[in-house]
Amino acid sequence: MKIAILGTGQVGQTIATKLAALGHEVKMGSRTANNEKANAFVAANGGKTSQGTFADAAAFGEVVFNCTSGGASLDALKMAGAENLKDKTLIDLSNPLDFSKGMPPSLYPQYSNTTSLGEEIQKAFPDAKVVKAFNTMNCKLMVEPTLVPGEHDLFVGGNDAGAKEKVKEIAGWFGWKNPIDLGDITSARGTEMILPLWVRMMGVNQSPNFNFKIVR
Amino acid sequence: MKIAILGTGQVGQTIATKLAALGHEVKMGSRTANNEKANAFVAANGGKTSQGTFADAAAFGEVVFNCTSGGASLDALKMAGAENLKDKTLIDLSNPLDFSKGMPPSLYPQYSNTTSLGEEIQKAFPDAKVVKAFNTMNCKLMVEPTLVPGEHDLFVGGNDAGAKEKVKEIAGWFGWKNPIDLGDITSARGTEMILPLWVRMMGVNQSPNFNFKIVR
To answer: In chain A, where does DSSP find H-type helix?
Structure first.
């Protein structure tokens, strides 16, 4: 599958590297073409990987992963271009974490509580099929759930049933069984708002290798 | 132990009834003495149970449970009286849920994100030993963890180590093993902010019989 990764940070690198290892055609996008980290990704993964601007990547991908940092996501997606996101599954991994006041981060009020970053992205790009997923865990765990032993959960939420099925299929490539479908994109409020507990738990646990499970 | 329950709603009734069944002296407090629901609790549980105002209950209890609704908690605790809460373990079960705009509830901005209701209670009553606990689950589960099979978690957070030990002891009476100590009262941000996911999951699950587990 042709897949776009928007963002060259740790999350983007991890998702892109895994998808490349699985044999997919992956284009990593950044603000400018020939971003140093995007070039390093291509150099390391070769063959079917490539890099370019956010718009280049979004135009290329059948599926688009938003791996940009939450505060910059809407700008990055504007650079990607609504026409390049139209009718595509846009997997939103971002969280509206505001680190500007130091640690621990709070959530940007304009992207939380009575709305969410996932919802704001869906509103800004009504023709994209936004699916919130993977945002409740460390990126290494996203692509390798067995890093944490036993059963634990991946949440997905979005308005388009077909796009959610596609995300569940991709999650299956990574090893996820039975993701919890929380319904429409407004469910992103819930999954984004558990980040403060996630950050706290990382401190308690002294490791990001943990995950939430809904026991029922 | 002499225990005060502030609040006559479902949470207060459930905690008070369990503690009475365990043989403790329980006084249920409300805005006014002889609240109908508080009288019903005493009528049903007899003997060592009693009722009165918030202040009556707080003065009576060695340990005080705040089971009032989040938006009313600070007012209720003011009626309970700082002098009656001084040096006592104040177990805060409340969540800053704002139902005024309909379902799903949002969180009151003044009690969330860069602060929490637990913190605001601790600030308003600096001589009380506030411990946030039990606020991440349905009240029936609080006092009977085996309602959900298998292992799942209770979170505690507060500034006073001795008070947290007391809460862990009480949690043990209810059947909780190994609560997760999240540190100081600022951790209440995390546990209060998972309520939107809890509410969403209740809809997905069509039952409140579930709980969070940290898998690591």
So the answer is: 10-21, 36-45, 54-60, 70-80, 82-85, 117-124, 139-142, 161-174, 188-193, 195-205
Mean predicted confidence (pLDDT) in A193-211: 98
Round to whole Å and give the CA distance between A58 and B200: 31
Taking an 8 Å cut-off on Cβ atoms, the answer to whether B190 and A209 are in contact is no
ipTM for the predicted complex? 0.97
Q: Which of A194, A209, A211 to mutate to test the interface with B (most CBs of B within 10 A)?
A: A194
The pLDDT assigned to A47 comes to 87
Q: What tokens were used for A112?
A: 């939380």
Question: Hey, are the CB atoms on A148 and B216 less than 8 Å from each other?
Answer: yes
Q: Which token pair is A48?
A: 């079917």
Q: What is the pLDDT of residues B111-121, one digit of tens each?
A: 999 999 999 99
Strand B155-158 to B180-181 pairing:
parallel
**Could you give the CA distance from residue A133 to residue A168 in angstroms, rounded to a whole number?**
9
CA of A92 to nearest chain B CA: how many angstroms apart? Answer: 17
Using alpha carbons only, what angle is made at residue B140 by residues B137 and B5, rounded to the nearest 5 degrees? 90
